[in-house]
Structure formats: C-alpha cells, structure tokens
Protein 1
Amino acid sequence: MTKKKRVAILISGRGSNMAALIEAARAPDYPAQIVGVFSNRADAPGLEIAAAAGIPTAVRSHKDFASREAFDAQVQSILDGWRAEIVCLAGFMRIFSTAFAEHWTGRMLNIHPSLLPLFRGLRPHEQALAAGATEHGCTVHWVIPALDEGPAILQTRVPVLPGDTPDSLAARVLLAEHQAYPKALAMVARGEATYAP
Ligand code: GRF
C-alpha cells in the first residue's frame, strides 16, 4: 500500500466524528493516519477521547489572539509541526481567514449535517423539519473560504420520520455522519476524490 496520508482533525466540542475517523484509521489498510487533534476550546470533550487513543493534541484559544489571521497562523504552525497533509474539520466552530482557507483548499474537508446546499449554517435539523423535508442527511465537502460551501465529496441520506424532533433527527443523521466521514476521507487519501472548483 502507498504511504498513509497524514491527517489532522480540528474540533471544538464533543468529537464524535473525530472519534469515528480515529477508529477507522486504526485499520491497517486505511489510507490515512491521524497525526494530531487541535481544539480552539480547552474544555472540548473530544480532546480526552483523542488523548486516550494516543493521538497528540493541541489547544489554543482564539480569544488569546488579536486577530483571526494571528490565530490561523498559530493553527498553521501546529499543523506544520504535525506535517499534516489533509485537515478534517469535525465540529470546528471557527471561520477561517481567507488566506488560511485558500492555503488548504483541496486538502481540507468538513462535515455538515444536511444535504448541502440545503440548510446551511446553524440548526440544520430544525431547518429541515421547519421546511417539511421528507429526507435529510449529511455532506462531507471540500472547504473553501465561504462557509458551508465547496463541492460535495459524499452525501448520505436518511429519512425524516413522523414525529421527529430536531434531536431525534440529529441522532439519525449523526450515525450516518460516522459512516460518511471515514469513507470520504479514505476516498480523498486514495486520490479517488479530488478537488475541482
Ligand atoms: C456534527 O453534526 C457535524 O456534522 C457538525 O457539528 C457536529 C459535530 O459533532 N459540523 P461531533 O463533535 O463530531 O460529535
């Protein structure tokens, strides 16, 4: 097998998608290895999961930096230290400066819990229910400077069921996310999915 791609994961919270990626990457034939997990929040529960899995972690609060650019430069130097080749955003709640996003374009992925371009931004499950959607799902997509935009790599659909609440729908989508993200990262790491603007 060709050399595993070095992947860093950026989180801000729970880290269940991060955990799914770490778990998938344990398989000997998985084409990527997780070389570090970064959080902009010291209290992100995902940090402990990463540390318990033996993955290096780093934390910097964006509040300690004078500008978005200064924070992003710090993140960049941490990613460089890990020699990351691909960045996976997994519940990372920060918008990047254009320069950072452009630097990683074609090498940075995100997962959003909706069938983009539907229901961008916050509370996508509430948005889906309010719109009367009969199906919903998740999208793994390339990250470009605009929020929740960038071409899709993989989408997974789930049904919206009678009586669904935002929470019940989110739980169903989350299970799909945990399948979709490792699959999409494998496609990218193998060069089967490449960025085309
Ligand atoms: C997920 O629903 C993801 O799609 C969205 O934020 C949530 C993060 O959850 N971007 P987790 O931290 O991966 O558990």
Protein 2
Amino acid sequence: MILTHPVCRRTLPVMRRLARPGRKVSLAGLLTAALLATPLLVPAPATAQPQATTPSALIPKPTSQRALPGQSFTLQPWTIVGVDSDVSERRAAKKIADQLTTQLRRSTGYPLPVTSVLPILTTIKLSSKGPASLGAEGYQLRADRSGLSITAATPEGLFRGVSTLRQLLPAKADAATRQAGPWTIAGTTIADSPRFGYRGAMLDVSRHFFSVAEVKRYIDLISLYKLNKLHLHLADDQGWRIQVDSWPRLTTYGASLEVGGTPGGSYSKAEFAEIIRYAADHYLTVIPEIDTPGHTNAALASYAELNCDNVAPPLYTGTEVGFSSLCVGKEVTYDFLGDVFREVAEQNPGDILHLGGDEAHSTPHSDYLTFVPKAAALVTQQNKRVMGWQEIAETPLPAGSIAQYWGTDDARSQELARKAAAQNAKVVMSPANRAYLDMKYDESTPYGQDWAGLVSVQTAYDWNPSTLIPNLPESAIAGVEAPIWTETLDDLDKLEYMAFPRLPGIAELGWSQASALDWTAYKDRLGAQGSRWDALSVNFYRAPEINWR
Ligand code: TNX
C-alpha cells in the first residue's frame, strides 16, 4: 500500500540512487529524500504499523527485556540508518551499519541508506557513544513507534546489538532474495551484556580441510549467536593447514591429504589474513591452534629431522589419535616451534595462541612435563597468552594461561581443571559429553562420533558452566567453547547439521545469566530459529523434540 502512494513513487528512485553501493550520500540529497519521505509529511496508513505477531524469541536470552505494549517499529521504504560514533570509531561503526543494510536491502528491497550526517532524521540509530558502564560488548536496544535505536559503548557492543536486531526482525529478513513485508518489530526495550568474556567455537580444519569460503560461512552463522572467539585447529596428524615460510614442506607436502586420503589443502598467508579480517568484521577473535607435542604426524612426515630417529613417517589419513610425538630431547624441535609460533603469531592480532597439548599418548610423561613449559615460553615470547587442552595444567603455566576442559565428568579431567585454577590459569569449558558438536545426537545420527556419549540438544544446553566441576571457583572460568572435530565431517552441510541446533545452546550458556537458563523456555525459543535457518539455507537437524516454526 505504501509503495503505491504517489509521494513514495517519487521518493523511492531518489532513495535507490542514494543507496547505490559506493555512493557517497550528500547532505542535500539526503535532506531532500528524508524530507520527502519522512512519515511526518507522508502519514502512513493505519495498516502500515501492524503489530508483530510472534513475540521475540532471542538466543542468547538478553539480560533484560521489556515489552512496550501497543507499540511497534516497522521498517519502511524510506527508513534511513544513522550512525553516531566518535571519529576514531566511525569506520567500524559504519561497517556494522553497512553489514546490516546489505542484508536487509537484499530481503526487503528497500534502499536503506546509511549516514553519519543527520542522525536526527533517521529511524534506525546506531550509536557507539553510550556510557562505558555498558561494557565492551553490552548494548541497549529500543524499538517503539518513533524508531529503533541501539546504543553501545563500543563498535563491538553495537555489533552484538545488531545481532539482536536481526533476530527481532521476521526470519525472512535473513533471506538472500526479496521477500514481502511487513518488517515489524513489537515495541521493546532491551539491556544486555554477556556473562562470560570467552564464548567460542572451534573448527577442526585438519582432519578435513575447509576452504576460506566455508570458514566464512561458519563465521556468518556462529556470529549470529554472539560468539566472540573462533578457535581454528590448524595442525594435526592428518594435515598441516597454515603456510609457514621458514618450514615450507609443512604445507607443500604436509597439507596434501586429509582423512580418507582425499586431497587436503592449506591457507596461504593471504588467505589466513582474509579469514582473520572476516572474523574481525564479525567481532570474532581468531585463536590459532598448533597441536603439540602429539597430533603432529603431518609435521613429522614433512621433516625427517623432527623425528627422534630421523626417519619421516608416511602421511596419515586414518582417524586414530595419540600415536605421534615431536622429539622432546632435540633442539631442532624448539627451533621449529619458535619459527612456527612466530609466523603464526605475526599473522594474528588476537592475544591467544593455542599449543594443543592433548592426548600425547606417545610422549613419555616426563618428556611431556619438560616439553609444555618450553613450548609455552616460546608462545609468551611472541607476546601471546598460552592456551592448551586441560593436560597442560599438569605443568607450571605462564601467567595469563588458559586451560581448555574437555572432560566427561571424569575425576581426572576435573582435577586438571582445578590444577589450572590453582595456578591462576583460566578455564574454558568444553565438556566433550555436552559441548562437542561432533558427537552424535542419538544412535540414528548418520555421522559424528560417540566416544563421549550421545549429545542431544537438551544435553548440550542443560548444564551450568560454573557449577559443572565441583570446587572449581567461578572466578576461574573464562567461558565456554563448542568444538567441532571433523574426522567424520567432510563438508559444510555435515558441519551445519552437527552444529545446528546445538551451537546456539552453548552460545546462550556463554552469554546469558545463569538465572535465565531454563530448558523448557529455551526449547521454545529454539523452535523459532527454524524459519531463520530455512531463510539462511542452514542444513540443520530438525530434532523431533523441538517444535520447529
Ligand atoms: C578428542 S578432545 C580429541 C580430538 C578428536 C576428538 C574427536 C581432544 C582435545 N582431542 O583429537 O578429534 O576427540 O571427538
């Protein structure tokens, strides 16, 4: 109805021209368009403000959300998005508005120009000038009849708020093609900030290699749920996946295969930089992992001198673990790791480097205790914090280290987590029997593993990161991470099937307050994500216990 209004027919072409990619919006042009289009001058018919029919079903659940009864906000053909930020943050804030409007232009067909010139005439306002009390990732959102605003203290907070806005809009707003409106949000105010600072997803690109485009797609999907760390498992027995100039055979040879013997692959420096940039644009810090001293067959196969007997083993394409080890007594081992950590660290602005340390079954225990502190020192030399799987807690750790718990409620793993805390290291919670996304949902799941048990959607959600391990102080917990190991997952469809719908549950455990966690209520909100995943063409598992809609 709005589209046939004579004023709008005149206004829309102006707005479209304004919204052309790369086009600078001039003050005069914007004023003209805004004045022509402003709802004050063109009263919208009553039907233009329909009430949103479905209540918002946000994941993660915000800290507080209040309804504004009788009010709503509707995206209109004339909506302008205004960005209000300090000069130093303008580029970042503008980029967030561009990401949002790029998607919404696709699905709504509206021009949605972005401006930092006239925030006063805009109906969507994104401000990163909010009080510092909101925290780095916190934000406030208000949708009412006069417009929609997101206020944060930083661009990062703004980005988290925009993820909420996307979920407030009808699911089809996430579609790649033009859809019919209306684009209405029920009146609401939200104040939100995360429970934990570490909310991660891990992707194993060693067992099966995933291209830059595939990693980007995973980033798109995980960032919708406010995760802020992307842990990439870059080297394991089956393949070395990141270019290291000083040890080139790691990729020219060590990357050639993957599980099953199919061709592998690796990221060149330029490609890795592209992943880091894309992750940063989605406010995800990349945590590169070079698994040591076990899980190193690809490196050992590439360089004979890294082996204690100077004999390079063949490349490995099976799925066993625990059979390989760097040679702890050899000096060259540390020259090698020093070079690798330096080149990996140089490429990554993030402050954490993960050195693995898990399942070193072929490394004598006394060697393991010698190795980890030496490897950790090579990490801190690069000004990075050390992260490693829980086993590293058996050795003294540098200040600021992080141990990643992957236990299954077993006493030994729990003890390792407490040992980490006792030396002031932080603990990231990735309990394999809850947070491992490569575990089967049930016996009928066509791929995945079951060594840690079957992990239903409820099992993945229904636990509390701060009380899972007895006598582990809450202050030691940095947050949560959902790893996805890829021995049985050789394409994106399978990754998506295993990650969705469980990953949003782990994301909620990381973001939402403990008091908000409730399976029955969560299950209902999860059901509402189904249509969004359909719009995004996500190959998710339609778990029968969820009411998908
Ligand atoms: C254990 S848990 C591993 C990985 C496997 C995974 C399969 C941990 C730190 N290591 O090497 O890929 O199980 O689920």
